[in-house]
Structure formats: structure tokens, C-alpha cells
């Protein structure tokens, strides 16, 4: 038995903690006070078919009972729900919040009230709480079982499959399958059905034809059987009224409408007619009004007809209700989201190990190195993710900090994880770098192993280069430092979680400081390996001492005008390709320019070409133009820095230029000679015409977007990675699609859920601009940002202000290329 004011744990079956964030306009506002008087037990049947007994004062109103139930369920978005009971005429009647419970319910001691979904929004993505979506899914299950939700057999089978998966999950031999996303898929399918949320009320027209009336978010609907034959939008309805058994729909005057201005329907009784009229009033107020209608003053002498007013928040007020979101919870949610992605990365490495185990060409030393490096990490982070999900499931849904406890902290989990990782990380993080070197050496020694790795990289599940996955433990350490740093800045020193977070942060910073020099070296090596696969005409690019400084597009001035070229700036040498991407998705390197003795000067006035500059070296000149002034400044800045480095190294060395022998022949050929360029192609193990290569690498994106990235950009991108749910706006409608999005390697990768094995689509962000969605764009939603490049425009919506700022921060790191002088201005804000 549940009494008003007692602590309830019913919501914990979904992992929801106790909360005072019930349906109210004021943060932390409690349910109405219980009136004095004797307590009467009232039974309420919940949507999961469990029955609860609430002790309510015999003087209490329906609002007291309803919000007591919401508090018992830890339900925040309670405005979509209601209570109903069976009247003496065996009709299901709503319990209105303004009516006293004892007067309305016939025999309250023996009446069972049902907790049901009352308002069905057309867009299920407006339901923000996991518990709300779960209760809606239970309502759909009840409607489907009772025959109220009618649909075709294939749709019914699809709904049932989602219901079964939500209960028992998919069979996976290696791990337990989470099922919460199935509720979302269930609502996604159900909301597209015509009978979703429809409650039919028998009626007849003037000719006596049997019909059914229903009300939905858009207006009043008319059905014949289960087929909708007419609908009246709220904008077309002037007035709804009833007179005895007749329900009247008065339409606005419209010369083009051949129907009558007043439609009349005959219902079974006056009570049925009045009940449907009240439902229409509530639906109209909830979905059409901006705020709860104010009560009209009562007439002094007498009143004519029935009066009824909607009591509660409107849908707009529910959506716009900004509860005081705890930043610590949002940080914990970000940690959970990124941890899920990180564990997926480790699982991909495990999959790669299984592929290698089947090959005889793989050295045993390499197999041992991979297993000893990543298996301990995979085991640890699998356990850590389970603990994190349990903690967040208890923390889920908290919108204020009035209820505090052990569940509202993260430092203890992170400190425990970091202390366990210290033993593993000291060895495994250094071995992650060694795995990249060892794998490359083995691929050079075995053409078969090289083909195996290339084919694995071309699979959908390997959405970024394989070496990036191998380095993910190093990158994850940087993310832990950022998470802990935000928590320490958020908490006051007196907070119970501060000491654990600070201790964990100190340990992570020590590990990062020890590994930072090696991280920069291995990241540069990984980029060189990636470029080596993208380039034709250069051998052994990834050698000791070689550093990538910038790569991107410039337009070269020639006799035929400006022609797009791909440039690659290293310490000591500048390379550029002739005609861009070949049939094998590679770039043909045409020429090298040594940096020793090179001079750079602006030449816009000299040649009349905007944003152009001239490179002079060895009595030869090369005029190039950038797409913008900022791009020109960044190229000139990095070129001058590289030239200074070459001068300090006392001129060109054999280490830097000796491996570019395949370019010697092409240097003396005409750049406009197509056949000459073709004959300069060199096959160095990965340049076969039959070989396929990735077409979404950084170099390819720079070519298509006519932009560039620098070494600093890569460094910033390593620290700015994010995962989580985003709502994407459909291009041709006002609907929104919920997606799981991973941002890494300058690209957004889109999934249905975080459990999907591979992305459905990707969006490289180099060249894009990110801005706030303006009022003139008619979005009418909060936390919306816009991505646009030329005519391509995308709108995305986040769940809260915190995640809006986080997504804007990480996306800006990819959409605006960095220069050395601007790097300090582009660090993450506090």
C-alpha cells in the first residue's frame, strides 16, 4: 500500500530513481497537499498490469490522486497520461483532475482505476524521458492485444517482433543484448499506423448510418468501421457543442466547401455525447493552445449549458518546460555514450584478430602482441561499461538535485577504473603504438597479409582506417582527462564526489604526460601510412623523421588557367598531384619541391588572381591560389614554418628525398601530357589497378571540398570526439528522426541505435559551416544547430543545452581549420 508522501520504488524496475520532477510548471514543486480527513484505499491498475493501492483522503481531488501516481512511478512527463474508470453504465470515463474522487467514482472502495495514455502526439520523438516512451510502448501492446489498434498482418507481425525483442532481447552468445531501443522502434512503427491512439465512439449521421467518431491531435475524425471517411481539422472548426444526444460540429464559413456549415451526429445517450465533447475540448487545448486556459468567472445568477475547462499543461508547455538539468548527469551521460563507442572499437579489433587467426601468413609474434594488448582492455571496459550503465540507469531522469544519494556521483567509478587501468595502461598503451609498427612491418613482408588488412578496412564495420582503431586506447585516455576535468570544474571542493574525481584526474594526467610525446609520434606515423595508401608515385613515405604539416587543395596557375591540385606539405619537401583521384581512388604525385631555399610571397596584384601566392625554389616558380584569404594565410604560415625548419636542418637530406626516386622521370615531363603522367605510375605493392582503396579518407574529402587540414587540426580532432543521440530534421516535412551519431575523424557517422554494427551513412564535415538555426528558418525547436555547405543544409536537435554546446564545440573543431597562431583561441571553453 502506498501512502501520499511515502518513498516509492516502483519506478526502479526501469532503473529510475526517486524524483520530485512530476508534472508541474515549477521546478521541484510537490503534489497538492493531502486534505484532512479519513483515508480511503483506491486501487490503480498500471500499464504493466500491476496493481497498486493508494491511500487518499476522501476529500482529495483527482489531481491529488493522479500526481501521487506520477510520483510513485517517478514520471516527469505525466501530462500525456490520465486515469479512467468504468462507470455504472459500463463506460470507461476519465477521472478529471478538478473533480473530487469520491463524488465521481461509483463505490471508490471497489472501483479499479486504470492508468492510461491520454494524449498521443503525432511525433513520438517529443517524448524525452525513457520511462515515458516505455509506458507508451506498454499502451501500444495493450491496444494491439485488445484489438483496439487494428493494422495489416505484416504491421502487426513487426509490432509483435519489437515487443518480443523488448522483453527478451536478441540472442547473442557473447554478450547480453540491451533492449531499451526496441521501445523506440515500436513507437516508430506504431505512430505511422492510422489507428494509433484512436478511441472510437459509436454514432450515427442524419440518415442513420452507423459511424464512429474519434478525436486526434489534428481534429475530429469520422470512421465507418475501421476506415476513416472524413476529418475536420481544428482550424476549420468554429465550435463544438452538444444538445442532448446530438453532437454538433460547426465549421467556419468556406465558399469552396460544399458541406454544410453545421454537422450533426447522433450518439447513444447524453452522457456519451457530453463525454466525447469533453475529450474534444481537452485534445484541442492540449495540442493547439500555448498555455493552460484560464478559468472564466462564474455567472452571478445562473448559467446556461455545460461548462468544462481543460486543466493541466499544454503540449507546448511540456516541451518547453526547462527543468534544472544537473550538469554532472549530462557529463556522466557523455561518458556513457562515448564509452559505448569505445567498446565497439575494441570489439572491432577483436574481430580483426579472429580474421588474422585464420591466416597462415600472420606471424605468431604479431598475434600474441595484439591479443596481449587489447584483450585485457576489452575485458576491463566491458565490466566498466556495465557498471556505468547501472549507475546511469539509476540516475536517469533526474531534473533537479533535491534528491541526493550515492547514485548521483561518478568519481568513485572513475577512480576505481583508473586505478585498475594503471597496471594495464602502462603496458598496453605503449604496446598500442608497437602494434601499429608491427602490423605495418608484417604487411611489407607479406603481400597476402596486406591484402587481408585492405579487405578488412573496406568492410562497412571498419568505418575509419584500421590504425585509428588500434590507437583508440591512447585517445580514450585524453577523453577521460576531459571528462574528469569538467567534473572537477563543476563540483565545489566540498562536494562528496570532488575528492574522487580529483584523485582520478591526477592519475590520468600523470599517465597522459608520460605518453604524450609517443602519442604525437605514432599519430604522425599513422597519417603517413594513410597517405602512403592514397598516393601513387612515392615509395616508403612513412619513415623516421618525416612529419606531415598540411595537406589540401590549391589551384595551380598554368597555361590553361587555374587547375585544381592536391598538395602535401612535409618537413623538407612539398608534393602535389596532377589530376587528382584516379580510378583506384588514389592521387598521382607529379612533382616535388624541396623547401630548402624556398621563398614565399603574395602575388595577387602581380597575376590578378585572388588569394594567390608564388613559391620560388631552384630558379623555378609556382603560382598557386587558395579558395579564400584565410586558407591562403594558413598555407603561407605553414610553408614559412616548414622552410625555417629546412634551413635549420642545413639543407635537404637523403632521408627526406632519397625515397622519392619514382618522381624523377615525371619531373621532366610536361604536366599537360596525359600519357606522360600515366607512365610515371609506380606499383609499390598497393598501387595495382585492380586494387580498391577507401574513398572517404581525409585527403579525398579535402579534394572534394577544396579545403585543407594541418597537423594541428589532426591533434584537435583527436581530443574532440563525441557520441550520442541527435534528432535529424527531415528535408520535406517537419518530422524529426532520432539517430545515434558518432563524431570522429572529421566525420559524423549515423546509426539507428548505438548497438548497430556499422553506420548507415556518414557526413564528412570539412568545408561545412555550423551555426544556430535562426528564427526565419521556421524550426520552432530549442537546441537546434544547422550544418551547411553550398546548397546542402542539415538541421540537428539535441536533448539539452549541455549537449547542444558540446556538439557545437566538437563540430566547430572540424569545420574550421586551425593555424598555429589561432590554436590557443580554439581550445574547449570551460
Number of domains: 5
Q: CATH class of the largest domain, please?
A: Mainly Alpha
Name of the CATH architecture of the largest domain: Up-down Bundle
Q: How many individual β-strands?
A: 29
Structural features, described:
One of its GO terms (molecular function) is guanyl-nucleotide exchange factor activity. Residues 677-689 have a biased composition (Polar residues). Residues 40-360 form the FERM domain. It holds the Pfam family FA. It is found in: Cell membrane; Cell projection, Dendrite; Cell projection, Filopodium; Cytoplasm, Cytosol. By secondary structure, the chain is α+β, with helices and mostly antiparallel strands. It has five domains: 1-119, Roll (Ubiquitin-like (UB roll)); 201-295 and 306-320, Roll (PH-domain like), CATH 2.30.29; 327-532, Dbl Homology Domain, Chain A, CATH 1.20.900.10; 538-681, PH-domain like (Roll); 713-826, Roll (PH-domain like). 39% of the residues lie in helices and 21% in strands. It has 22 helices and 29 strands. Strands 14, 15, 16, 17, 18, 19, 20, 21 and 22 form a nine-stranded mixed beta sheet that branches. A seven-stranded antiparallel beta sheet has the order 10-9-8-7-13-12-11, covered by helices on one side. Helix 3 packs across helix 5 (180-190) and helix 10 packs across helix 11 (447-457). The longest helix is centred in the middle third of the chain and has 37 residues, at 498-534. It is elongated and about 100 Å long. The two termini are 48 Å apart.
